[in-house]
Specification:
- The chain is α/β, with parallel strands linked by helices.
- The protein has one domain.
- Helix content is 54%, strand content 13%.
- The protein contains ten helices and five strands, in the order ββαβαααβαααααβα.
- The protein has a five-stranded mixed β-sheet, with helices on both faces.
- Strand 1 and strand 2 form a beta hairpin.
- The longest helix is centred in the C-terminal third of the chain and has 21 residues.
- The chain is globular and about 45 Å long.
Length: 210
């Protein structure tokens, strides 16, 4: 599948790059697109709090993974070395800081996400989601490539309506954040998790996105 695509909005050219969280080789993909595109500004599918936290991670950082994250990492490891924090985001931040390129977090902030989660996810849905890890572990995902694996994983984990609605809200927030980041910029590189890339692109193509 196509992992990057250009969108023209007004005087700004947006290069949307879909990245796979956790796969170490993704750092090289981000660097390659950055060097070819030479952006004036970057947008990244992290919240403000996540971006701040990424810049303050100690050298001896040891990630505490949820059960879902452990299963995801195990499945993704079939396609290469996996590490945390996500190398795609680490590379994006390092490149932006090294070349003095502003980087804008465009995902939902933590407080808004918490409010949204509490409003949409009831007790029954939370119980169903938390007890389905054994089903996900036994399910066979695509062995063809990491892109298919990640998208299949996303469909399986977010198959409940309440979680799909949360992901839709995230995509809308990202698209609006990208458009806001375009102000005064001619070349914007948007580093977006592959799971949300298609919807973000669709929203960016919608001329009513503000």
């Amino acid at each position: 599948m196509k992992r990057s695509d250009a969108i023209e909005r007004d005087d700004c050219r947006i290069e949307v790059l879909g990245v796979i969280k956790g796969l170490k080789s993704e750092a090289g993909a981000v660097k390659q697109v950055f060097e070819l595109f030479r952006p004036d500004k970057m947008a990244i599918s992290l919240s403000k709090e996540e971006l701040d936290g990424l810049r303050q991670i100690p050298e001896d950082y040891e990630p505490e993974l949820t059960r879902y994250e452990e299963i995801y990492a195990e499945g993704l490891s079939r396609f290469g070395e996996v590490s945390a924090p996500p190398p795609c985001y680490v590379a994006a931040v390092e490149l932006a800081d090294h070349f003095g390129v502003p980087i804008v977090p465009v995902d939902i902030d933590e407080r808004t996400y918490t409010d949204l989660y509490c409003a949409l996810v009831d007790g029954t849905s939370l119980f169903r989601h938390s007890t389905r890890t054994w089903v996900v572990r036994r399910r066979r995902f695509s062995d063809r490539n990491p892109e298919e694996f990640v998208l299949a994983w996303d469909r399986a984990v977010n198959n409940l309506d309440c979680f799909r609605r949360i992901e839709h809200e995230r995509a809308e927030t990202m698209a609006k954040g990208i458009m806001s980041a375009c102000a005064g910029t001619q070349r914007l590189l948007a580093v977006i998790e592959l799971e949300r890339m298609a919807e973000v692109q669709r929203l960016l193509d919608d001329k009513n996105t503000e």
